[in-house]
């Protein structure tokens, strides 16, 4: 994401790279066209739920990251973290991120500071890639794949509307879909729940992959384990690939029991942060699929630890990705670097994914995404496009 020629970076690499000292970090809240989240207290287009991060260095390279948090909180988090990151070497993302975590334990593990560190960490990996001329996927150990299947992530609608929405994205080339939240489970009508899933399956077609997200991390989720068990049986009739967030996010015992009885795989953990919190979920049989969010969990440095721990325990890793184009770029690089990471989440219809890059992501003829093999995250922000969604985009660039 820098105009410095690759051959210059390669020459620097051969001669030994100097430190790339962090001189400042900027955050740009995104708002104006924030997509619906399906939450009980629904977000508005003018609300900020995402922010971009720019890490500036004394060598002129700038790295970019994404945070799934209100931009005002990210800006406040940067003020707290500033004494810890100023002058640090951006070519050491693991070290710097762990330093930020370790020195803010007393403020609480998770929440604003961990989310903010996530964006900083992603941006430092972007800088390391630019400085070495390598994609983040290669820096993480190699590329298991050159492309990956995106699943179009959509909010649930009433059955007729659900069918139209899924059909529309199928026409755009998607061959995998996840439907979630909306009236599902919230209308307290099991017949409606099934009708929504049936409509989605009919629109997606028999050969497409379909996943269902109850969204039980929503405020005041009304159901418990028995509802989840009954619903899992229904979902199996429609060949649903996984049942996501089927019970409240802290109900680990319910997850364990549901996973043992469910005919469909059970997925979750998008709300957790830091690798330590995932250990009981991965070691006690609570999940078939773990879904950390790289823009919240602590960044790429944390996400890769979780992904490898899951792999070693026979649990599938699929990153949660209801975020921005930079979050998706990080997810793509992670997908390149892990053996079974065969899917990435692609939020359908968000301008923050489709409308901020110089070269937007595009599906190939089979509905898959090519994973960039360019330095860093392999994408470039278009500052004019970004200016539609944040008041001071220039702070990210210069």
Radius of gyration: 20 Å
Largest sheet: 9 strands, mixed
Oligomer: single chain
Please state the structural category.
Answer: alpha/beta
Write down the secondary-structure element order.
Answer: HEEEHHHHEHEHEHEHEHEHEHEHEHH
- Estimate what percentage of residues fall within beta strands: 5-15%
- Write down the overall geometry: globular
What's the tally of helices?
A: 15
Number of strands: 12
Percentage of residues assigned to helices: 25-40%
Look at the structure and give the mean pLDDT.
94
Number of domains: 2
Cα distance spanning the termini: 13 Å
The CATH class designation of the largest domain is: Alpha Beta
Q: Please tell me the CATH architecture of the largest domain by its name.
A: Alpha-Beta Barrel
**Poorly predicted spans:** 2-15
What is the CATH topology of the largest domain?
TIM Barrel
The CATH homology group name of the largest domain: Enolase-like C-terminal domain
């Amino acid at each position: 994401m820098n105009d410095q020629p690759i051959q210059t970076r390669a020459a620097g690499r051969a001669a030994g790279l100097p430190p790339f000292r962090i001189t400042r970090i900027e955050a740009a809240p995104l708002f104006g066209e924030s997509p619906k989240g399906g939450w009980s207290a629904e977000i508005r287009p003018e609300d900020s739920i995402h922010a971009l991060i720019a890490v500036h260095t004394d060598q002129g390279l700038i790295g970019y990251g994404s945070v799934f948090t209100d931009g005002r909180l990210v800006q406040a988090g940067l003020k707290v973290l500033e004494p810890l990151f100023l002058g640090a070497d951006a070519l050491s993302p693991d070290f710097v991120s762990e330093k930020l975590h370790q020195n803010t334990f007393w403020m609480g593990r998770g929440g604003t500071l961990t989310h903010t560190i996530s964006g900083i960490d992603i941006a430092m990996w972007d800088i390391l890639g630019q400085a070495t001329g390598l994609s983040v996927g290669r820096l993480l150990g190699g590329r298991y794949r050159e492309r990956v299947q995106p699943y179009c992530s959509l909010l649930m609608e009433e059955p007729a509307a659900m069918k139209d929405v899924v059909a529309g994205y199928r026409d755009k080339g998607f061959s995998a879909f996840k439907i979630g939240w909306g009236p599902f489970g919230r209308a307290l009508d099991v017949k409606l729940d099934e009708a929504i899933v049936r409509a989605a399956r009919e629109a997606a077609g028999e050969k497409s992959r379909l996943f269902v997200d109850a969204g039980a991390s929503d405020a005041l989720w009304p159901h418990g384990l028995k509802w989840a068990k009954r619903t899992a049986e229904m979902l199996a009739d429609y060949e649903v690939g996984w049942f996501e967030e089927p019970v409240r996010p802290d109900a680990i015992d319910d997850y364990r029991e549901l996973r043992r009885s469910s005919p469909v795989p059970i997925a979750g953990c998008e709300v957790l942060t830091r690798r330590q919190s995932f250990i009981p979920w991965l070691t006690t049989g609570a999940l078939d699929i773990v879904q950390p969010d790289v823009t919240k969990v602590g960044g790429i440095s944390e996400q890769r630890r979780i992904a490898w721990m899951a792999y070693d325990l026979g649990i599938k890793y699929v990153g949660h990705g209801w975020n921005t184009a930079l979050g998706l770029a990080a997810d793509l690089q992670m997908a390149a670097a892990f053996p079974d990471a065969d899917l990435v989440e692609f939020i359908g219809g968000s301008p923050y994914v489709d409308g901020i890059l110089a070269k937007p992501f595009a599906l190939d003829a089979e509905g898959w995404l090519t994973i960039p093999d360019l330095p860093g995250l392999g994408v470039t922000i278009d500052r004019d496009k970004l200016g539609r969604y944040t008041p001071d985009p220039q702070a990210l660039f210069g």
